[in-house]
């Protein structure tokens, strides 16, 4: 373990994620080929100084300071490692829009953990970072694939350990994400859900999840269609997404096997055969436009590598006047 120097920096690439994927509420998520890039550097100042510089129009409302998720996550690493905190600056190239259901907060958590760990010589294992990420986020479906990549099923085992299973995603299956110009916070989406659900709905979800995972593994569109149905969260959240149901119907009519809420929304995820992807993408944007909501759509690959980091050249402190 090393004490980080003023001017020392690392660059961390963290992928977006789509969580739940229909019936996999709070346990299933996939990393997408769309990265936020965090350049984190030690700077002069007190231990609670955290400067945030956002590159991109989406994050104008984000602020620095000790309550920022990146810095709070960095603090957890230093506490675990027995290291005194240092002042930090984070310059973020924001490609994953906040409050859209694509794991923006997870990218901040993972970046803070990986960056802080790298700055002190990586004393914490990837497994320990995974535990910290889940503890900070409160659920694993975004932070796990964001950290390790791929399609991940995460569950707390009887041993009380978090167990992560990397699931297969056939190259025949294409992900299309439609991102509206409206925001929906995770807390708002969770408030819409009931405190308990019928046993029958839980049973249906278990069956649907089994079908979905087999369909994703084999590229079987019929299984994906039957598997992309949820009774735990989607029935209570569709009403929060203006025009969402019309967009879903447009995606299905254009050739999608299924269309679900990405994470807590409002972005929507369609799964389709690759030849249909561009048609599905255009249909979703058109349907949202007809509902009075501007949007954009991305045809995205599954990102298999997870988060990664590299050293930045040291930056000399500015000379005092």
From TrEMBL:
InterPro entries, A to Z: GHMP_kinase_C_dom, GHMP_kinase_C_sf, GHMP_kinase_N_dom, GHMP_knse_ATP-bd_CS, Homoserine_kinase, Ribosomal_Su5_D2-typ_SF, Ribsml_uS5_D2-typ_fold_subgr
Keywords on record: Amino-acid biosynthesis, ATP-binding, Cytoplasm, Kinase, Nucleotide-binding, Threonine biosynthesis, Transferase
GO terms classed as biological process: threonine biosynthetic process
Annotated catalysed reactions: L-homoserine + ATP = O-phospho-L-homoserine + ADP + H(+)
Pathway the protein acts in: Amino-acid biosynthesis; L-threonine biosynthesis; L-threonine from L-aspartate: step 4/5
Positions bound to ATP: 97-107
Protein name (Swiss-Prot/TrEMBL): Homoserine kinase
Family, similarity comment: Belongs to the GHMP kinase family. Homoserine kinase subfamily.
């Amino acid at each position: 373990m090393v004490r980080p120097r003023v001017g020392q920096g690392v660059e961390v690439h963290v992928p977006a994620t789509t969580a739940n994927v229909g019936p996999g509420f709070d346990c299933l998520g996939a990393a997408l080929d769309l990265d936020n890039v965090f350049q984190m550097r030690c700077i002069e100042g007190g231990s609670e100084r955290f400067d945030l510089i956002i590159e991109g129009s989406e994050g104008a409302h984000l602020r620095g300071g000790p309550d920022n998720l990146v810095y709070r996550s960095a603090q957890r690493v230093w506490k675990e490692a027995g290291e005194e905190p240092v002042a930090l600056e984070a310059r973020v190239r924001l490609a994953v829009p906040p409050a859209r259901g694509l794991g923006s907060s997870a990218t901040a958590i993972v970046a803070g953990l990986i960056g802080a760990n790298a700055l002190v010589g990586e004393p914490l294992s990837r497994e320990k970072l995974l535990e910290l990420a889940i503890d900070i986020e409160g659920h694993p479906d975004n932070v796990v694939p964001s950290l390790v990549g791929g399609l991940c099923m995460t569950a707390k085992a009887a041993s009380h350990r978090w167990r992560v299973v990397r699931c297969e995603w056939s190259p025949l299956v294409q992900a299309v994400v439609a991102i509206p110009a409206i925001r929906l916070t995770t807390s708002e989406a969770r408030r819409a859900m009931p405190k308990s659900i019928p046993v029958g709905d839980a049973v249906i979800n278990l069956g649907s999840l089994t079908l979905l995972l087999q369909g994703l593994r084999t590229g079987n569109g019929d299984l994906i269609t039957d598997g992309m149905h949820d009774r735990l969260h989607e029935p209570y959240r569709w009403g929060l997404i203006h025009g969402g149901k019309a967009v879903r119907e447009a995606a299905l009519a254009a050739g999608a096997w299924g269309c679900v809420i990405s994470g807590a929304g409002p972005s929507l995820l369609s799964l389709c055969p690759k030849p249909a992807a561009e048609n599905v993408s255009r249909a979703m944007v058109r349907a949202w436009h007809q509902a009075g909501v501007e949007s954009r759509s991305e045809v995205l690959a599954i990102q298999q590598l997870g988060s990664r980091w590299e050293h930045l050249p040291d930056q000399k402190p500015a000379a005092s006047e």
